[in-house]
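Input record, target 12 of the design panel.
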């Protein structure tokens, strides 16, 4: 059999046939460009954005950098070159007195608070007060039905009369027996028995008198009076109710308001100085302020120091008494108590607004005689609401700047307005303001018509 030709031989004897492919065409103008140009363009935008961000950050850092402090003559020339003289408010350092205070939180506490209870049982007949009345000691407040006790009084008085008659008769018999015993007409035993009977009747009469006195006291208790002077609170029992001595609520409450006290606390470290002066007999003034420590409510004096320190808080309680003549303080009101521990005299004082501080030192701007400013380091002592004690750095008579210090540097020229003197600019504007009221000059007069 004939063998088929191999695949290799077939391939070698094949005639190559040219493929019928279309001729290549020129690239069209509307064809999208290749990927490389958009990639380069996007990178360009990224770099531009980074440059803008870096430029903005650099400008921000440059604008927020602290200005170098100008000192000496160069600083003074720079401050003067910045513009005209800076207007400031200033005050003189003076010698005066300032107090050393101890402040503590406290509450207004009445010296006396009385809850009125009935001492007898019965019906509450009348209420002779109004809620909130200010009553004096001894004023009648209420009345309890006295009729049962009046009946008891009549009964005991009749019993006393009967027992008194028995006693009188026994005494007559005793006198008769004493005469007969001298004549040996009666035995001694009979006289002794009569003497014992007289003593028995005397005891009965005395018991009757005690019962009468007890009923009289109950009759007095039927009329309830005020034991102290103070203000009455809300009524607790209305008329017509049966009141008992075992009632726990009481009939009413009276609170003394004048005088009144404030109990406040101070730290145990502050106690020795206060305790020493109190024991020496010194009267230590105490001022009561409101919750915000802005308004002074009343003035009083320290009266009592507690006998122990509270170990849980490390504080001790003090009581100050106030006249409270105008009812500035109200029971249980929260207050801040300020105790004057010591008063320093003859010290240099400047307004607290003139004291400047930074992280390193305490200083003040002092005005020189040539109306320029200098920075002076100072040391402070005691301060209060308005003034500060200066222990070194400023002398009496020095002029210190209070306001307008934010633009001052060493050697700056100043236009000084002293505290307590009229402002020249305000005085100059006063005539214009007065003329403006007539409506004839200025932009707008009192009549509201604009002048031309």
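The sequence produced for target 12 reads:
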């Amino acid at each position: 059999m004939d063998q088929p030709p191999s695949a290799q031989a077939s391939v070698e004897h094949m005639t190559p046939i040219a493929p019928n492919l279309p001729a290549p065409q020129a690239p069209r103008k509307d064809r999208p460009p290749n990927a490389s140009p958009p990639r380069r363009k996007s990178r360009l935008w990224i770099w531009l954005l980074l440059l803008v961000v870096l430029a903005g950050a650099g400008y921000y850092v440059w604008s927020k950098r602290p200005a170098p402090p100008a000192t000496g003559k160069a600083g003074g020339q720079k401050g003067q070159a910045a513009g005209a003289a800076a207007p400031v408010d200033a005050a003189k350092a003076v010698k005066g007195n300032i107090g050393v205070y101890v402040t503590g939180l406290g509450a207004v506490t009445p010296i006396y608070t009385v809850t009125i209870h009935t001492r007898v049982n019965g019906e509450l007949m009348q209420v002779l007060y109004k809620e909130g009345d200010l009553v004096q000691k001894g004023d009648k407040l209420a009345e309890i039905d006295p009729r049962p006790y009046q009946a008891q009084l009549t009964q005991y008085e009749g019993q006393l009369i009967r027992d008194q008659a028995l006693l009188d008769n026994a005494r007559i018999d005793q006198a008769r027996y004493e005469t007969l015993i001298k004549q040996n007409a009666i035995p001694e035993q009979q006289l002794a028995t009569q003497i014992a009977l007289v003593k028995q009747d005397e005891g009965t009469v005395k018991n009757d008198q005690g019962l009468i006195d007890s009923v009289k006291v109950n009759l007095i208790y039927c009329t309830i009076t005020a034991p102290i002077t103070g203000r009455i609170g809300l009524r607790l029992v209305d008329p017509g109710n049966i009141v008992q001595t075992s009632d726990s609520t009481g009939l009413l409450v009276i609170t003394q308001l004048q005088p009144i006290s404030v109990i406040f606390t101070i730290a145990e470290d502050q106690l020795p100085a206060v305790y020493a002066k109190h024991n020496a007999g010194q009267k230590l003034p105490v001022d009561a302020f409101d919750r915000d420590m802005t308004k002074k409510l009343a003035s009083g004096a320290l009266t009592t120091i507690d006998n122990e320190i509270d170990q849980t808080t490390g504080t001790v309680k003090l009581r100050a008494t106030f006249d409270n003549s105008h009812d500035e303080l109200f029971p249980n009101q929260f207050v801040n108590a300020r105790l004057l521990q010591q008063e320093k005299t003859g010290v240099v004082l400047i307004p607290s607004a003139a004291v400047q501080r930074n992280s390193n030192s305490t200083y003040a701007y002092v005005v020189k005689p040539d109306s320029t400013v200098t920075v002076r380091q100072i040391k402070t002592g005691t301060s209060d609401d308005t003034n500060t004690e200066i222990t070194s750095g400023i002398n009496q008579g020095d002029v210190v700047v209070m306001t307008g210090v934010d633009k001052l540097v060493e050697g700056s020229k100043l236009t000084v307005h002293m505290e307590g003197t009229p402002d020249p600019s305000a005085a100059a504007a006063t005539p214009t303001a007065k003329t403006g009221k007539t409506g004839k000059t200025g932009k707008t007069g009192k009549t509201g018509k604009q002048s031309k």
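The domain at 146-221 is CATH 1.10.287.470 (Helix Hairpins).
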